[in-house]
Write a structure and sequence with these properties.
By secondary structure, the protein is mostly helical. About 75% of the residues lie in helices and about 0% in strands.
C-alpha cells in the first residue's frame, strides 16, 4: 500500500473517531444545525489551507496567507468607504494587490533565494503594517470598524439558495476539488510534486523552479483574496486583526492532512480532512463546555502531536522504502550471479 494511502487512512480514522466520540457523548453535536455551523466555521481556514497546500507541496511554507487576507479585506473596506468606485473595480484592485503580494513572496523565495520561513514572515509583517496604514480612522485618528452594508458583499455570508449550506462552504469544497484536479490531472500539478520531491532532478528535467514556486505563492494569494471576500461577507466589516491568526491554522490543517514540509507529498483531499479534524475537535470541546483557554491548549496539543507523528511516520516509511530497495537490489544481484 502506498505511503500516501496509509497516511490518508490514518486521517480518516482520526476524524471518524472524533465524530463518534463527540456524537456519543453530547446531544448537540450530530445535528443538522451544528454540522452546518461547523462547516461554515472551518471554510475560510479551509480556503487558505488550499492555497498553503500548493506551497507546502513544493517544499516551502507560507506564513503570510492570513495577514494577506487581512490586508485585502482592509483595501476593500477602505475603498468602499472612501471612494466612488464600483464594487467590481474595488474587488479588481484588491485582487491585483493580492497577486502583487503573492508575487513578492515568490520573488523573495525563488529569485532572491531567501528561505520560505524568513521571506513569508517578512511579507506577513509588511501586510500587517499595510493593514494598519489602510485602516479606517475617525476624525481624531482612532481606528474604527465601519459596518459594510453592501448587499453583494453581505450575500457572500449567506446560505446558498435555501439549501441550508453556506456559500463559503461550497466555495471551500469547490476550490479543493479544482485544486485536486490541478495537482493530480495536469502536467503543472506534476511539476509541483517534482520540485518538492527533488529540485535538482526536476530542474535537470527542464522544470523551472522559479516559475513553479512563483505560481504556488500566487495561487496561495488568490486563495487569501477569496477568503477575504467571504470573511467580510460573514462579518459585515473588517478590522486590523482579521486573518492574523489564520496562517498557522491553515498550515496545521495541511500538515495534519498529510502534506509534508519536506515537499513532494500532500493533496487537497488530505487538506480537507485536516481542516475537518481541527474544526470537529474545536466544536466538540466547545460542546463539553471547556473554557476557551483550555480549548486552545488541547487543540494545540493535538495539532503538535499530529505534526510530530507525521515527522516520525515519514522517516519510518522512508527507511522502510530504502530497506525494500536494498533487498530487491540484493535479490537481483544474486539472480544475476547465479546466471
Amino acid at each position: 500500500m502506498k505511503t500516501e494511502t496509509i497516511r490518508r487512512i490514518i486521517s480518516v480514522i482520526l476524524l471518524t473517531a472524533l465524530v463518534l466520540v463527540f456524537s456519543l457523548t453530547t446531544d448537540s453535536f450530530m445535528t443538522a444545525a451544528n454540522i452546518t455551523s461547523l462547516l461554515r466555521e472551518c471554510s475560510v481556514i479551509g480556503i487558505l489551507s488550499v492555497g498553503v497546500t500548493f506551497v507546502i507541496i513544493t517544499g516551502g511554507n507560507n506564513l503570510s496567507s492570513g495577514a494577506m487576507l487581512g490586508t485585502v479585506s482592509m483595501i476593500i473596506a477602505q475603498l468602499y468607504h472612501s471612494s466612488p468606485l464600483s464594487l467590481i473595480a474595488i474587488w479588481a484592485i484588491a485582487f491585483c494587490a493580492a497577486l502583487l503580494l503573492g508575487f513578492l513572496n515568490g520573488y523573495a523565495v525563488s529569485i532572491l533565494m531567501i528561505p520560505d520561513f524568513v521571506a513569508t514572515l517578512s511579507v506577513q509583517m509588511i501586510c500587517q503594517g499595510l493593514t494598519y496604514i489602510l485602516a479606517i480612522r475617525s476624525s481624531t485618528g482612532a481606528i474604527v470598524n465601519e459596518t459594510i452594508r453592501n448587499a453583494t458583499i453581505l450575500s457572500l455570508g449567506e446560505k446558498f439558495m435555501g439549501t441550508g449550506i453556506y456559500k463559503v462552504t461550497i466555495a471551500f469544497f469547490l476550490l479543493a476539488i479544482i485544486g485536486q484536479i490541478f495537482l493530480k490531472k495536469t502536467k503543472l500539478g506534476t511539476y509541483f510534486y517534482a520540485i518538492g520531491s527533488n529540485r535538482k532532478s526536476a530542474e535537470y528535467s527542464g522544470i523551472s523552479f522559479v516559475k513553479i514556486k512563483m505560481l504556488a505563492f500566487i495561487l496561495s494569494a488568490v486563495c487569501s483574496f477569496i477568503g477575504a471576500l467571504f470573511l467580510m461577507g460573514r462579518n459585515g466589516t473588517t478590522d486590523v486583526t482579521s486573518g492574523v491568526s489564520l496562517s498557522f491554522q491553515a498550515i496545521s490543517a495541511a500538515v495534519i492532512g498529510g502534506a509534508s514540509f519536506a515537499g513532494g507529498r500532500g493533496d487537497m483531499l488530505g487538506t480537507v480532512l485536516g481542516v475537518l479534524i481541527m474544526q470537529v475537535l474545536k466544536n466538540g470541546l466547545l460542546k463539553y463546555g471547556i473554557a476557551p483557554q483550555w480549548q486552545v491548549i488541547l487543540s494545540g496539543v493535538v495539532i503538535v502531536s499530529m505534526i510530530v507523528f507525521d515527522a516520525f511516520y515519514s522517516e519510518y516509511m522512508q527507511k522502510r522504502t530504502t530497506r525494500r530497495s536494498a533487498v530487491e537490489h540484493s535479490k537481483k544481484k544474486a539472480v544475476t550471479a547465479n546466471e
